[in-house]
Amino acid sequence: MRAVITVLGKDMVGILAKVSAICADNSVNVMDVTQSVMQDLFAMIMLVDISNIKIPFSQLADRFSELGEKEGLTIHVMHEEIFNSMHKI
Amino acid sequence: MIDTRDILETIQMIDNENLDVRTITMGISLLDCIDSDPDRACDKIYDKICRYAGNLVKTGEDISKEYGIPIIHKRVAVTPIALVAGACQDRDPVRFAKTLDRAAEAIGVNLIGGYSALVHKGFAPGDYALIESIPRALAETKYVCSSVNVGTTKAGINMDAVKKMGQIVLKTAEATVDQGCIGPSKLVVFCNAPEDNPFMAGAMHGIGEPDCVINVGVSGPGVVRAALKKCPDGDLSEVADIIKKTAFKITRMGQLVAQEASRRLCVPFGIVDLSLAPTPAVGDSVAHILEEMGLESCGAHGTTACLALLNDAVKKGGIMASSHVGGLSGAFIPVSEDAGMIDAAKCGALSITKLEAMTSVCSVGLDMIAIPGDTPPEIISAIIADEAAIGMVNTKTTAVRVIPAIGKKAGDDLNFGGLFGHSPVMEVNRWSPKKFIDRGGRLPAPMQSLKN
After folding, report:
1. Nearest 5°: phi and psi at A59?
2. Largest CA distance in chain B
3. Mean pLDDT across the stretch B30-36?
4. CA of A57: which chain B residue's CA is closest?
5. DSSP per residue over B309-377, as a string?
6. Are A46 and A36 contacting, i.e. CB atoms less than 8 angstroms apart?
7. Could you read off the pLDDT of B92-129 as tens digits, one per residue?
8. Could you tell me the fold of the domain covering B22-191?
9. Are B123 and B136 in contact (CB under 8 A)?
10. HEC string of B374-426?
């Protein structure tokens, strides 16, 4: 099972480290990372493997929204399936 | 890796364009709760709803969190109560409304539908008792929604029921005058009522449905408008194409949520309702889509044509995205729940007559419209009759949910608070239809051939 983590906001030092630290703490394996800019927005997208996750997925989402609030970023964690079903026939 | 643009587009839709799943509605059959002893019947109803839907709200919240999609409402629809209450000697169905209310409170849903009667061909004693009790039931409960089906294409229109419902709508407003006349906003008068509609206030669990079922209603007027904004000068074929593609994405999301909810709750998946349901939030308006197509204001000449295009494209896009489609499926035009409609009604661009014309090409009907409190009941009945006639002849669902604003006149503002929003009070045509309504009887079912 895979999930997509998206981080949107202003660029700053250490975003990647903080996000991957939470992943590492909970046995979430980072598989791919990409960055892009859309409408003056910094966007980082991470594809992660959540097969061995140590906590319920909803708690992981909470961790990330806490981090997002602290750093002034918008962080979404969503199942990969949602993108596949919406954008692929 | 999934395409980055797709991911960002999805996030943009959710964060800025109000994309959401509007409702997960669990339909529960109460036919096995029928009992001649009303206390026993009510106990069975309460137990069954709590047993089946106990985890509905939590499951909805879990799915919402995991998939990152807002799921706004979790609701329950039940078998029309007239069928259940009709078996009891005691002819006061309000106790059933109170039981539904208690069950809704216990499981944490924000509305429960099915305080309903199907009287398109005539009344059974239970139907009549239920209709009579609607004003009291809606005044004395918080979560219960009521609906009455007064006509179908196959049976014609029961004009006695139409006459009765004009009076009931007015009485319901009077009974809830201290709560901003909220009662009639939970009362829908249908023609061709669907059995699997997940949207309140008209949701009910039809008798052809299984014991329990999950139906989902999607939404996203904001997403459609944002997509159209990117194509300001395209012709209408392009506009239709953009709406179809957007509707496809929205509906796929609904389908995914419906399947997941069905799996987790171990309840069969029923249908996805392909709908564009507005909310009063800025950027979540169907009227604004019509304006984006090129109207100065919703209600201008051309509105019906724009809405016809929108409604058709939403269905065409959505139908391939879902394995089963049903319910009301189409664009909703509830005046008080749509910021653009409110503005158009306020500035005089949108009238009830235009809204009536719009209902002939879109989902549902005259929805959430405040009318002056001194409107006589026969005029409300005549509004219902007109709307039912449109539904009957065009083989589509139509409905009336008008709110007599007691003590207010045209041009005033009626505020319900919360999701129900506020609405400018709109003037009705005052010429009297009294003689016509007093005649009663049935409007015969229409021809199904020689279509002109």
Report:
1. -70, -35
2. 69
3. 92
4. B66
5. HHHHHHHHHHHTT-SSB-TT-EE--BGGG-HHHHHHHHTTS--HHHHHHHHTTSSS-EEEEEEETT--H
6. no
7. 899 999 999 999 999 999 999 999 999 999 999 999 99
8. Anaerobic Ribonucleotide-triphosphate Reductase Large Chain (3.20.70)
9. no
10. CCCHHHHHHHHHHHHHHHHHCCCCEEEEEEEECCCCCCCEEECCHHHCEEEEC
User: Region B390-401: what's the mean pLDDT?
Assistant: 93
Strand, helix or coil for residue B148: strand
Confidence of residue B213 (pLDDT cuts 50, 70, 90): very high
Instruction: Name the one residue in this structure whose structure tokens are 């329990």.
Output: B212
Domain A2-87: CATH superfamily, name plus number: ACT domain (3.30.70.260)
Please indicate whether, in this complex, the C-beta atoms of B253 and A61 are within 8 angstroms of each other: no
User: Beta partners for A76?
Assistant: A6
CB contact (8 A) between residue A57 and residue B66: yes
CA distance A22 to chain B (A): 17
Pairing of strands A2-9, A29-38: unpaired
Low-confidence ranges of chain A (pLDDT < 50): none
pTM, full prediction: 0.90
B214 φ, ψ (degrees, to nearest 5): -110, 120
Chain B residue with CA closest to A78: the answer is B67
CA distance B293 to chain A (A): 24
From the list B1, B62, B68, which residue is nearest A76 (CB)?
Answer: B68
Domain boundaries, chain B: 22-191, 216-443
Tell me which chain B residue has its CA closest to the CA of residue A5.
Answer: B7
ipTM, two decimals, is: 0.84
**Which of B3, B62, B252 lies closest to A85 in CB terms?**
B252
- Whether A6 has its CB under 8 Å from any CB of chain B: the answer is yes
Whether chain A has a CB inside 8 Å of the CB on B62: the answer is yes
Q: What residues in B contact A80, CB-CB < 8 Å?
A: 2
Top-level class of domain B216-443: alpha beta
Chain B residues near residue A74 by CB distance under 8 angstroms = 11, 15
**Burial (Cβ within 10 Å: 0-12, 13-18, ≥19) of residue B208:** exposed
Query: Residue B300's pLDDT is what?
Result: 94
- Common-topology check for domains B22-191 and B216-443: yes
Q: Where are the domains of chain A?
A: 2-87
A33 interface with B at CB cutoff 8 Å? no
Neighbours of A15 (CB within 10 A): 19
Q: Are strands B21-28 and B442-443 parallel, antiparallel or unpaired?
A: unpaired
Q: CB-CB: which of A36, A58, A74 is closest to B15?
A: A74
- A24: closest CA of chain B, how far (Å): 19
| B4: nearest CB among A45, A76, A77 | A45
Amino acid found at B83: L
How close does chain A come to B238, measured CA to CA in Å? 19
CA B345 to CA B307: how far, in whole Å? 17
